[in-house]
Fold this protein.
Amino acid sequence: MSKRPIENACDPDLRLSFAALQRAAVRARQLAVQTQTDLIISEQGVIRKISPADLSEWQPLQEPSAGYGKPP
């Protein structure tokens, strides 16, 4: 397994996968708040259940800039 940063990968899909995961996490938090559903996450190997009330205060629910169209 390579120790290089994923941003330096040769495959463009792999290079952009981290940003895609971040966008998916933001969307999951938004959906959990909208549907009043608990969110289950794993942080450093520990499984946590986060209530919608905690999510609304947790992190900004703004979607990060996608960066589409930027050259690698």
